[in-house]
Carboxylate--amine ligase
Amino acid sequence: MSKRHFPGETIGIIGSSITSALLAQTAGALGYRVASLVTAEENPVRQFASWQTLTESYNLQALTFFAERVDLVATEVGILTNADLQLLASLTDLTLSDNLMAMTTDRLIEKSYLDSRRCLVPPFSLVTTLPDVTEAVESIGFPAVLKSSQRHVEGADDHVMLYSEEDYPAAEEKLNQGACILEAWIPAETTASLTILRNERGEILIYPAFEVVDLASGRQRYQYPIEVEDAVTAEMNRLAQLVAESLDLRGSLTLSFLVTSANVVYITSLSIGLGEEAMFTLGSMSLSQFEGASRAMMGLPLPELELTYPAAIAYPIEDLNQEAVLTQYMLRTDWAFALFNPIGNPTEQLTGFVTVTGKSIDDCLLQVDVTDITK
């Protein structure tokens, strides 16, 4: 049942990432108490939490203890099972429908649900043995991507690319960890990420789609405006609203897309909550995704969104020259800096994102070159 939460109530956050820390900071600024459940003593959430519980694992006892002491709970993706989420929902307010609980923990359910809603997803097949893989390849073809079906298992995000039968030994090793999804590899012109918010009143706020660009380090940068046709943008927005409403979303949902050269739009994944791309919105937009997601979960109204600048590119600071970044930090008011020094880190060890703003993507790239902030 949908609820509204008022300042003074306690919001419970499970997980210890930077995004959880920023969600905790935002909730506190809105007048809420913040409780935190983590498995690592040194974590960035601690400095923003009213109280924090440290546990060896997210087991039944720890989750029960935590849920009974908070008014609403939010959790990171990939750390809890469907049964864990069902337990939380029985003890406190969890802003996830039954379908979302299942989809956020199981890739097979996610893809089957999207397929049933006539959303285009890459062809896929459930595989548990190597013979399953060889049979699935006959219809899916090479190359293909092997992914863990369950998101909470160790190595769930370590996907295996299959280019030929020579990659079967790696596939068999992956299958030893549990059931997997074999998914067709789609040659795409653009990889995009889009976040949608929805509160219990049914109000919706859709953030502009960001282009996701892979960096040599294995990390990613995010930029807008995305260089696709208006019809593609409209289709991504339509799909996001369709999925959010069909799942009775309350909070935030991030959709990952692939756009082909023929402007065909595939949904590759759904994710509750916020990822690191949400840091892109700090300073570059009138409402950060952290504040927007907090407002949506608590039942607060969602304001209109305004872009602060026509274009922006966000880089992880780990891929930048930190000394050059800090020079710009002391000089500029037009860039956005989401920089953090988690408790336990050396003072000089920063994490976060630097968002370069400008009139266009080319203008942003020129500023990056002139300031020499890249390594």
Summary: The domain at 10-94 is CATH 3.40.50.20 (Rossmann fold).
